[in-house]
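Lab notebook, bench 4. We co-purified these components, and the gel suggests they stay together. Before we commit to crystallization screens, I want a quick structural picture of the whole thing.
Request: model the full complex, all chains together.
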Amino acid sequence: MLQLLKRYWVVVRRPARYFSLGFLTIGGFVAGIVFWGAFNTALELTNTETFCISCHEMRDNVYVELQSTIHYTNRSGVRAKCPDCHVPHNWTDKIARKMQASNEVWAKIFGTVSTREKFEAARLDLAQHEWARFKANDSLECRNCHAYDYMDFTRQSARAAAAHSALLASGERTCIDCHKGIAHRLPALPVPGTDVKAHTSDATPR
Amino acid sequence: MRRENRQGLIVPALRGWVALASLCLLAGTATIANAATDALTDPLRGSTPILDESQPPPLQNQENKDVRRVRSHPMQPPTIPHKIDGYQLDKSVNRCLFCHARTRIEETKAIPLSVTHYMDRDGTVRGDVSPRRYFCTQCHVPQDEVKPLVDNRFEDFDTVAKRPPPKAAAPAKR
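Here is the predicted assembly.
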């Protein structure tokens, strides 16, 4: 094995014997463009909604839930697609997210959420991953469209304006802290203080 | 009933009861028909004939002023003075409680649920919202700014009580 590596190292180190410098530079450049173009095209292909809902796990659960929300249908017809919120737009962040998402390929192959029941069971866990991601990047994907600097508080309801000008302005809260579950159904939340958990555990009629 | 039979003779091939009934409606004399439509003008349907579908009024925006409304009578569930579009209210999540829960009102300044919502049917106060009071919109509803379709002559108790007593001892007309 070591012998083999050494032999290749020698080949790689040695100047080319038959190919001209021009061929190597221009050829390398062209090959670079081709490889990069192919890579990026494939990457962008996985960054479309069509790709996301080509799996029934997404199409039958989260995509259906999105359709009744304001991020899918609204008065002006502007809508958010899956990658708008779930994939960072910055290249390095996007690559990092894509590498994480290779885990989702594993989950697809082994059917981790292949049925509605499995999905519902995993919903809280999945949601918490996304909430943690939004919390960590200060709701970057929200802010790609909803920029604080351009919010007109006079056009918001009094309640919204108060919350935004106090909590969002100071950076004390970020979008996802209050706006969980605006695009998909919420899981049963075991969050202290919401008094929600008790209903799922203690919903038997007395 | 007699008219039905007559129609049945004129048009032998009747396709069932619906066709029969509709023919009866259409076959009345002009005066009867006019009188009937006048009498049947329904505020909800307008003058749309009974066999046509009426055009529903466009959906309005829910009122979103956050100003508490006066209750018409003491037992009236208060109406919701803000939008609840897209609020999830099912067995896993109650969006209303995100703000209106007992433990959340300090931060949100929302109105807490009254203690009756914690009572089970025997009147025992429980630690959390009683399942029978869990679905808020069964009683509490948002309001739209629309013209009421039917005239409402309801007067609350204060108005009635302040009114000078009637001179004669006539019983109140209902």
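Residues 2-40 of chain B form one domain. Worth comparing against the SEC data before the next meeting. Helices of chain B lie at 2-10, 16-27, 30-40, 97-100, 105-108, 157-162.
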